[in-house]
């Protein structure tokens, strides 16, 4: 099998998984919910493996042919020597292929662009989160409730959410304190503390750094939604070790309408994770009921593993040539 055929197969696989992957993610949901923390790691890794495999297509296409010479003879010979040091398909090169230098440059520029956009989005998110935290601290007061230090803000809605620890941690509204009994409040606080201890904010911030163009890929969009749900389920599981299921479900039901901070939507940073939301109650009270079909989860795991293997197989020869000083 030549490099061109492998490139076409890989490209077809990436397109198919990118377009129809959401069905697989949805089908794997029940089994993922049994081990939400493991599933978050798998899905997050899968996103970056898909992106890495897509970017490595350029390096694979370089092996398909030499392309027209666009550099001087001496520079061209240096590039040829480097590429030959990596290419396991040298005997099957096609002279009409795209110039190798341009092909590799496209891949490197795309990678640099993704990193640059990601850093910009991270900075913007951090600034937004910091400003929101300052606004809330200006109108709220810190208290110790059930052994946890929280910021209590005046608001007529039942609110409970969490900033990263460096930005203030847990925030509750006055209505939450009035509406929940002692055990329900303990369950909500346990849920929020789980967000902090399991570093859900870090995961959310890393994924939020993905450019909008990447986030619109069906597989990526569905995976991000699944990760957000699984983080909440993981926090619920931790809270269930502090209070019983009925108490936690009652607390979530009472707070069903308070899923957003009392701030304009444009001021909310992704580093804010919410405890409220009646949509999780069905999952909470019916968790692990009946048999679960693990085949979709295994199929998705296999797809990600194959992408990772393809990426390693393509990039390893380039790394080896670079470390050995092919020039």
UniProtKB/TrEMBL annotation:
<keyword id="KW-0472">Membrane</keyword>
<feature type="transmembrane region" description="Helical">
    <location>
        <begin position="297"/>
        <end position="319"/>
    </location>
</feature>
<keyword id="KW-0482">Metalloprotease</keyword>
<keyword id="KW-0479">Metal-binding</keyword>
<keyword id="KW-0378">Hydrolase</keyword>
<feature type="domain" description="Peptidase M48">
    <location>
        <begin position="149"/>
        <end position="285"/>
    </location>
</feature>
<keyword id="KW-0862">Zinc</keyword>
<dbReference type="InterPro" id="IPR052173">
    <property type="entry name" value="Beta-lactam_resp_regulator"/>
</dbReference>
<dbReference type="GO" id="GO:0046872">
    <property type="term" value="F:metal ion binding"/>
</dbReference>
<feature type="transmembrane region" description="Helical">
    <location>
        <begin position="37"/>
        <end position="63"/>
    </location>
</feature>
<keyword id="KW-0812">Transmembrane</keyword>
<feature type="transmembrane region" description="Helical">
    <location>
        <begin position="100"/>
        <end position="123"/>
    </location>
</feature>
<keyword id="KW-0645">Protease</keyword>
<dbReference type="GO" id="GO:0006508">
    <property type="term" value="P:proteolysis"/>
</dbReference>
<dbReference type="InterPro" id="IPR001915">
    <property type="entry name" value="Peptidase_M48"/>
</dbReference>
<comment type="similarity">
    <text>Belongs to the peptidase M48 family.</text>
</comment>
<keyword id="KW-1133">Transmembrane helix</keyword>
<dbReference type="GO" id="GO:0004222">
    <property type="term" value="F:metalloendopeptidase activity"/>
</dbReference>
<dbReference type="Pfam" id="PF01435">
    <property type="entry name" value="Peptidase_M48"/>
</dbReference>
<protein>
    <recommendedName>
        <fullName>Peptidase M48 domain-containing protein</fullName>
    </recommendedName>
</protein>
